[in-house]
Every structure is written in structure tokens, then in C-alpha cells.
Amino acid sequence: MKGRGWLVLAIAALAAASLAATAGAGSSTVTRSQAVNCKGTVKLAIVTPLTGGGGFIGQEQLTWAKFGVKNLAKKYGLKVQLLQGDTPVEKGPGEGLVVAQKFIADARVLAVIGPATSGGVASASSALHAAGIAHISPSATRTSLTQGSKKEATSSFFRVVPGDYIQGPTDANYMVDKLKVKKVVLIDFQEPYSVGLADAAEGVLKKKGVTTVRQSTSVNTTDFSSLVTRVPSDADIVFFPSQQPADAQTFGQQLLEQGKKAKVFGGDGTNSPAQFKLTGSYVSNFAPDISGIASSKALVDGWKKDNPSAQLGSFGPPTYLAVEVALNAIKKACDAGKGTIKNRKDVVKNVKKISLKTSILGGPFRFSTKSNDPLNAKFYIFQIQSNGTYKLVG
Amino acid sequence: MDTLVPLGFDVDQFTQLTLNGLTLGSVYALIALGYSLVYGILKLLNFAHGDVFMVGSFIGFGVLQLLGGSADPVVPTWLLLVLITLAAMAGCAVLGVAIERFAYRPLRDAPRIAPLISALGVSFFLAYSMQLLFGAEQRDYDAFSLSNGALFLEGFNIGNVRVPLLRIVIIVSAFALMAVLWMLVTQTRTGKAMQATSYDREAAAMMGIDIDRVIVFAFVLGSALAGAAGVLFALRAPTFASIGFLAGLKGFTAAVIGGIGSVPGAMAGGLILGFAEAYTQGYISTKWSDLLVFVILILFMLFRPQGLFGKADIRKV
Questions:
Q1: Which fold has domain A36-161+294-363?
Q2: Is residue B86 part of a domain?
Q3: Chain A residues with beta carbon closer than 8 angstroms to that of B243
Q4: Which of A25-29, A65-69, A161-165, B142-146 has the highest mean pLDDT?
Q5: What ipTM did this prediction achieve?
Q6: Is the model's pLDDT at A208 over the cut of 70?
Q7: Average model confidence (pLDDT) for chain A?
Q8: What is the pLDDT of residue B3?
Q9: Which of B3, B20, B242 lies nearest to residue A225, judging by beta carbons?
Q10: Which residues of chain B have a Cβ shorter than 8 Å from any chain A Cβ?
Q11: Checking DSSP bridges between strand A390-392 and strand A380-384, what pairing results, if any?
């Protein structure tokens, strides 16, 4: 190719790169809102870790999101397409924003289920808010997302599960009231989730006169031998708010190996019967075992029929609830706009107003008037049985 | 803030931490040996070595599943452990040969930076390939389920400290492998050829030693040891695709401490590093142990770059 030809090619490439950069520009870019005809296909996106260490959460949430869309789209008279965005925890919280950008650019995406992780919400909420997209998380529990003077999430963020400001005190009160603990070791992993949860629990324990021992280790630690050595032999419980259930299992085994009597008490991040199955350990989670809720039996049976080899867990049902909230809000926005949603923000306004008489998690559901957290939500405590099942104890 | 150990020496705690250090150090020593074997002959830092360790842990996991898993294995526990270790060693030996053949041999006469960059490339290639193939989630051998937890709950006592069977298996296996390596290097023809090649490659070639064969043998040995280390490590802690980077760095640090290129140095360096980590975690803070490891590396590079057992590099001017 002659010199001029190369020059033309270079300029064209530069122009294309500039266009691409503009299209994928930072969080301040807002797509021009387009009216969406509710008779056409509307889009819902789920943003969750589908691969990586947290993939077990995302895969469970995805099965329930698909089931929710299949069930509820008919109920609300909508045609819904579910899009998926993978945010592996190993890529860090910033991946939430990267994935969110993709959905922001699609004018037919009216709501996002997620991001699943608190870090992902903190990263993506401003961009989603600027684009007027409601984002409803079934699992992001960090307190500072919706509480405090410097909230990390925006007013377009909602969650259908309670925050850690409830989980920490719930766990601590259970330890004191039911387990009658005298000494508790609390471990954090030098990242916001575990530090926040450990702080919240420690505050309550100290107020109630329990001796606390605080330890900290890197989130990359997999051999906890020397950390276990530091656990006092008279400690009753080790509070272990890891986001890796396999680490909770390893830690518990190493406690037994070194002859320590303390039991492991994990947070919702360790909730995985397949990976954390040490008999006698405790786990807290934001959803009950819905197989025990009579009003949800039909839904559970329907989900099992679609997913015969999957195990019923605690991360999926809140996802179904998040989908129900989203589609209900979309339907209300469609009705208000007489078959057209002129602006995605109309969906956000309607999410806040959602009130369900019965939700899949049992009982009624609506958002608190003071925040976008669920009203009167609670955490549940499970104890791991010898057959590996999680029994509800508190 | 961590609660510091109160003043007053606790014998049981010291014993437990020493046991922790010995267990960890044995694994580091096996990794470090691979670095030293290759560096001794090729003067190449094989940064892919940590990822060979990672692949070994995955091979062990795969064979464990094929043999029925920990909950219901089709062979006795002792045989299961032997088989998964041998499989990992064999698999990693083959991998080591492939890495040498395709990533390093073509660059043997290139400037030294070239094989170093190739080594980094292989490291990333292995880590991301494994992640793509098997996902990034942790894989747990679940050794606790073997023989109803016997590996963790049975053993013998030193004072009030229990020494579980699993720790005995890891430490004895690691030392046995080190002993076999030492015999191979010092008592066999090929081992002596390796030593000659490490002193002077050109002179060794002139003496009729097949250099290519010696180099391949070094990679076979080093990689097999890394595979074994992968299995021994994963029996106590979950493994995952990105574990090789930090494990490799620690193995490299151990090799430097002992004297890179020195086989006894690598063994000693691994144990020293294991003890340093365990005592730091036990007596100071678990947050500082990784930091300490790299502080030690820097101090050795500054004040004793030849390591404890290595010889200072004297150049005639």
C-alpha cells in the first residue's frame, strides 16, 4: 500500500478508536433516554459473579432470576429478556462498573438485578443512577451503602435483604443470648465487608460484657494454622466473616486439628452447604430456608422442576424477590405511561412504592420509608448438622 | 488491632508454631529446590515454577475425584495419597519438559532478559489457562473426610500439642523427597553431570556430557517436586488458579535465602522461611507475615546476595 493509503488507514483507525472511547466513556456519560414501548421486549440485566470464587452465588442467583422472569413476565403481561453480566470477585469491585456500562448503553434495559456484591454496588451505583436505572440487589449487605452520612450507593439503589448493621448485632445477640459465650475471637480480612461486620458484632459483644479478641489476616490467606494457634483455648466462638466458604471449612478443620474448642460462626458470605459443612458450626444469612415456608412451596417446586440438579440455597430466593420488585415497578411505570415508559427514572420512582402482600421469603414486603432497605427485615442463624444440612436455630 | 501475645513464654504455643513452620517450610523447600536446580544449570529464574506447583495441586484434585473423592474413595487412604502425589509429580514433570522445550530452549543463547520474559509469559499463561479451564473458585481436597477425619484428629502429642497424622505425612514426605533428590544429585551419573554442568556448561559439554539431557532432567526433577508440593499444600488448604504467583515468590525467596543454585541451601531456605512466617504470625501479627517474607528477601539481596550456602560470585578483572 502506498504512503497515502497507510495515512488514510491510520486516520480511520484513530477515528474509530475515538468513537469507541466516547461510547465507553466514564460514569458521567448518560445515554439519551429513549421511550420504551411496553408491548415490545423490555430488558432486565443481572450483574453478579457467575465465575470465580463467588461463582456459586451468581450461578444460584441466575437460576432464580431466569425462573423469576419466566414466571413473573406472564403475570405482569410483559415480554422480558434477561441479560447477564459477570463480575468475578477476583477482578475487584470495579468490574461492577465495567459491566454496568454495557447495560447503561442499552436503552431497553429498564432495571438491573444487582450488583450482587457490595463493592460492585459502590462502584456502579453512581453511573446507574445517572442513567436513571433502578438497581435492586439481592445480596449486597454492606451497611454503608444505605446508612451513614456518606452513603456509598445512590437513591436508585434498593436491596431486598437487610444490611450488615442488622447482621452483626443479630449474630452477636445470638451468641450472647443462646450460646452464652464468654469469649469470642473476631477475625477480619482487611476488606470492607468483613471489617464492617466484625466491627458491628464486636460492638454489641463488648456492650454485653463478652471478652473479645480481634485478629486480622490477609484475604489471600488459605493456611490459617498460625492464626488458629493464636485463638485462646478458652474461646467459645470464632467469628469468621469470610466471603469464601472453603476458607471457613479449612479454618474450622484447623481448629479441630489443634484441639481448640471454639466453634466457627460465619456470616452470609460463608453460606454454602457444599463447601462449609463442619458439624456444629454456625452461619448467618439474610434469607430463611424457604423450603419451610408453606406459601412458597409452589415456587420452590417450580424452580426445582427447571433446575433438577441444583441445590436449594439462600442466595436464590431473594433474587426472585428482586425480579418481582423490578417487573412490578416496570408494570406500574407502563400503566402510568399508558403503555410507554418515557424515561427509565419512572421505574425507579415505582420501585420505592412496591408493596407485596406475600413475598417468596415469607410475609409481606415493602421498602422502609427512611431508606431503600426492606422494612423489618432480619437475619437468620443456622447450625450445620452432621449430615451437612443447615438447620434454622435463630 | 491484634491482641499481642502476653509476655511469658508459652511452651505449647512455641511447639505449635514450630510445627506450623516445619509444615509450611517443608512445602516451601520443595518449591525452592525447583528454582535452585534450574538456576544452578541454566542461570535462569523460572518464574513459571510457582504455577507448576499450582497445576500439581489441580492434578492431585482431579485424580482424587477420579478415585471417588475424599468422602468415598475406591482405594485405602494411604494408597490414595500416594497415587495423587505420583500423578501430580508425573504430570508436572511432563509440563516442566514442555516448558523447557518450547519456552526456554529456543532462547538459550539469547540475552538473559529474553528467557526471563518468556518465564513470566509462561507463568501468566498457566494461571489464566487453568482459570479458563477450571474456573477461579477454590478447590478443596476435603482431606478431613478421609478416614473419618483421622488425618486431622489422630497422631501423637508433644506435651499438650497434638501432632496430627496429616502433618506427619506432609513433613515426612517432603523430607523423603528431598533425600531422594540429594541422592540423585550426588550419587548418580546424571546427578554428577548436573553438578558439572552447573559449574561450567561449556566445559561439561566438551567432556561429552549431553547438556540438553541434563537440562531436561533438571526440569523434570524440579517440576516433579513442585507437583508434590502442590498436593502436600492442598491437603491442608484449598487451592485455586492464582495461588501459584505468591507460592512461587515464596519459593523463590526461600531459594535466595539458602543460596540460589544450592540444593542444601534451598532446603534450608524453605525451612527458615516457614519458621519465620509461623513465628511472625504467632508472636507479632498475621498481617505482617507476607511483608516480612519480602523484607527478608530484600535484606539478603542487599547484604548477602549469595545466600547462606551459596558462593560469592567472584569475577576476574
A1: Rossmann fold (3.40.50)
A2: yes
A3: 222
A4: A65-69
A5: 0.85
A6: yes
A7: 89
A8: 45
A9: B20
A10: 1-3, 5, 13, 16-17, 20, 23-24, 135-138, 140, 142, 144, 149, 152-153, 161-162, 164, 166, 233, 236-240, 242-243, 246, 277-278, 281-282, 285-287, 289-290
A11: antiparallel
Q: Round the average pLDDT of chain B to a whole number and report it.
A: 90
The predicted pLDDT at position A384 comes to 96
| Superfamily for the A165-285+380-392 domain | Response regulator (3.40.50.2300)
Q: What is the pLDDT of residue B317?
A: 57
Q: In this predicted structure, what is the pLDDT of residue B99?
A: 96
pLDDT of amino acid A224:
94
Across the interface, whether the CB atoms of A257 and B162 are under 8 A apart is answered yes
CB spacing of B287 vs A216 below 8 angstroms:
yes
Domain that holds residue B223: 12-303
pLDDT above 60: residue B5: no
Output the pTM of the full model: 0.82
pLDDT in tens, A170-180: 999 999 999 99
In a domain, B308, yes or no: no
- For range A5-33, the mean pLDDT: 49
Write the CATH number for B276: 1.10.3470
